[in-house]
Automatic annotation (TrEMBL):
The name this protein goes by in its record: Unannotated protein
Family affiliation: Belongs to the ATP-dependent AMP-binding enzyme family.
A single BP term in Gene Ontology: fatty acid metabolic process
Lineage: unclassified sequences, metagenomes, ecological metagenomes
Keyword Protease: no
Species whose genome carries this gene: freshwater metagenome
Alphabetical list of PANTHER family matching this protein: ACYL-COA SYNTHETASE, MEDIUM-CHAIN ACYL-COA LIGASE ACSF2, MITOCHONDRIAL
All residue ranges annotated as the AMP-dependent synthetase/ligase domain in the record: 26-182
UniProtKB keywords: Ligase
Pfam family, one: AMP-binding
PROSITE patterns, alphabetized: AMP_BINDING (PS00455)
GO MF annotation list: medium-chain fatty acid-CoA ligase activity
Amino acid sequence: MAQLTSALTGQGPAIGLGAVTSTQVPARVSVVVATSGSSGTPKEVGLSSSALINSARSSNTFVGAKYGDIWSLLLPLTHIAGINVLIRSLELGTTPLDLRDVTVYPKANFTAIVPTQLFRALNGDHELLHHLRNCKAVLVGGAALSETVRTQALEQKINIVETYGMSETCGGCVYNGTPLDGVTVEIGQGGEIRISGAVLATGYVNNQAAWDKAFVDGWFTTSDLGEISNGTLKVNGRSDDVIISGGENISLSAVEKILSAKFPDCESAGFAMDDSEWGSALYVALAGAETPSESDIATAIVEVLGDIAKPKGYLFLDALPVISIGKVNRKALQNIVVSERLER
């Protein structure tokens, strides 16, 4: 907290989160966040004090946080979502409860988690469930939240606020489909979500050319597809999660949505493997105490997406590998398949 305060006020050096390799940053940058790099070279996102504080204040305002309220920290400080909890706390004149490695959870007013944590709270982690139920609001972001888990959370009287954003927007900047104060969202010609406002990053510290490509005329173009209806943003998935198998397009997001709805007690993911016959072959991975059969999985997907989307391979794991704070690590799933092939 002391180092963060020094960075935000310009009294100390900028703070690097994650695997940051840069040693110098522009004077206006207070925090540098290394992205997960799940789909390419990691980017080091430079964030200003102004952007971070605007984000924290808008977040506190949205959830109704008052001076003296307490946030709990359940996310790693190598990620923007974790550092945001600290900045929101600074704005409230408090210190967050560090609950990153505990089994008993004291009461807090607010917290932020990823869908994986919510899933586990609803499927056996009773202490965490109790903690979430006692919070005035629980921010959930970092990955897509399934309709099944959302419904279960509401049934358990958890006041979830689904957030959408990324490191380039100081984390979540759209809450329950509504942009925070000072944030504007539009849909580009290709269906990509575009964001402008005071929460935007200063740039990529290690790749200015990539930033110049994504940030044009005050708008940051994301890799996510969406639509706006009655002023509410709906995120439909990533523009780069579509694989071409046998000449047909298959959305991994669509596959995962089907699996989540059909098998709500399991965590699931779709991923692609290079294949000489199909080009890219669809594989699926599931984790849970009881997983469905391969035939049941195939039937569920084929019924919605057709025969072309019948999986070509399956993984059944104790837990899905994740990168950052809840996003499934599809590269790790591919490596597991490769390792299993070598062992045969």
